[in-house]
């Protein structure tokens, strides 16, 4: 009741204020699930599959930061957060609770690609904006899906390493857990480039959790079995950090290596004088989801799929990232800068 009264009393003023910051006032429904009836300030729901991993904590932090900006613009009054603790069925129940509470938008990293279909269809039918990012659902009953391209990740990493080795060399391949879509997609993305360069010999590859300790153990075993390697195609930042520690412990010379924006990897990269390349799943995908939800509720035309370009870290800009290392957890990720102008550019580029 209080929320409805607040919306009725202040909605028009808030729309005008937000229009000045770059979002037009709502005139009609221009995106899927949007019925044009909801008015600001909006309540956003963040349906988190789990909150323990540092990556997820950092992602939630960007959502909270963006919501504060949206509150200042009069567009959001509340952020509701749930934690399914890794249980996809619990996440579905929590989404249903958000629907019952009549939130205006749901931000979602899905615990299952198929299980939430029915509850998301229900939310969509009620005019609730649904922005699904990172781990995507199979249904199209959402407002927008937001993600980077994991296949492109693997392809770009492989091409960088192949070029660095001049098209010839013996390499190790480090993957995340088998059966995890992002891990499998990154590896699949590297296949074409590797097949096109027969001078690159894969000595061995391994699948481990995205943690330094198991990666270090796995690479240690591979190094004992293969005393001569020329490069490492690593498709995860913790995997790369583990590889560096394993090589250093054996007194091995460092080799060109790919990776991810994990802070420990980036710091070891600089400390050991590596030549490396990395990209990332930016934590600000969460902030972007919140911003996109409000744009959709305001009647903006939002594409059904928004591809977020892969930010690149290489020898030319590693120092820029490390200069900001103190702003990020020691076991976290140094992600690229973001603002709402960047978000507008990404949406426009996906139209």
Automatic annotation (TrEMBL):
Any one cellular-component term (Gene Ontology): cell envelope
Membership in a protein family: Belongs to the bacterial solute-binding protein 2 family.
Superkingdom as given in the UniProt entry: Bacteria
Signal peptide boundaries: 1-29
Domain Periplasmic binding protein residue range list: 52-300
Protein name: Ribose transport system substrate-binding protein
Entry's localization field: Cell envelope
Molecular function GO terms recorded: carbohydrate binding
Chief subcellular location: other
Keyword tags: Signal
Organism, scientific name: Bauldia litoralis
């Amino acid at each position: 009741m209080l929320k409805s009264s607040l919306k009725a009393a202040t909605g028009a003023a808030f729309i005008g204020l937000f229009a000045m910051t770059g979002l037009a006032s709502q005139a009609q429904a221009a995106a899927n699930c949007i019925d044009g009836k909801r008015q600001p300030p909006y309540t956003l729901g963040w349906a988190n599959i789990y909150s323990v991993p540092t990556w997820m904590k950092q992602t939630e932090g960007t959502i909270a930061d963006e919501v504060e900006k949206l509150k200042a613009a009069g567009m959001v009054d509340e952020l509701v957060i749930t934690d399914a603790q890794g249980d996809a069925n619990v996440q579905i129940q929590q989404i249903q609770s958000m629907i019952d509470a009549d939130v205006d938008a749901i931000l979602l990293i899905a615990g299952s690609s198929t299980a939430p279909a029915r509850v998301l269809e229900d939310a969509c039918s009620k005019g609730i904006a649904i922005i699904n990012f990172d781990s995507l659902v199979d249904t199209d009953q959402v407002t927008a899906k937001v993600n980077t391209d994991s296949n492109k990740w693997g392809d770009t990493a492989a091409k960088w390493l192949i070029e660095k080795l001049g098209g010839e060399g013996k390499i190790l391949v480090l993957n995340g857990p088998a059966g995890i879509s992002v891990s499998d997609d990154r590896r699949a993305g590297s296949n074409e480039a590797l097949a096109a360069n027969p001078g690159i010999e894969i000595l061995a590859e391994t699948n481990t959790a995205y943690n330094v300790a198991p990666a270090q153990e796995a690479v240690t075993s591979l190094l004992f079995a293969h005393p001569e390697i020329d490069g490492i195609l690593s498709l995860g930042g913790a995997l790369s950090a583990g590889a560096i520690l394993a090589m250093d412990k054996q007194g091995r010379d460092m080799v060109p290596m790919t990776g991810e924006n994990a802070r420990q990897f980036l710091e070891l990269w600089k400390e050991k004088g590596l030549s490396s390349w990395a990209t990332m799943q930016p934590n600000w995908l969460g902030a972007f989801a919140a911003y996109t939800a409000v744009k959709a509720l305001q009647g903006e035309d939002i594409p059904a799929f928004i591809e977020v370009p892969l930010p690149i870290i290489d020898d030319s800009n590693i120092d820029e990232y490390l200069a900001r290392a103190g702003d990020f957890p020691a076991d976290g990720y140094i992600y690229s800068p973001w603002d709402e102008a960047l978000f507008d550019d990404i949406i426009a580029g996906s139209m």
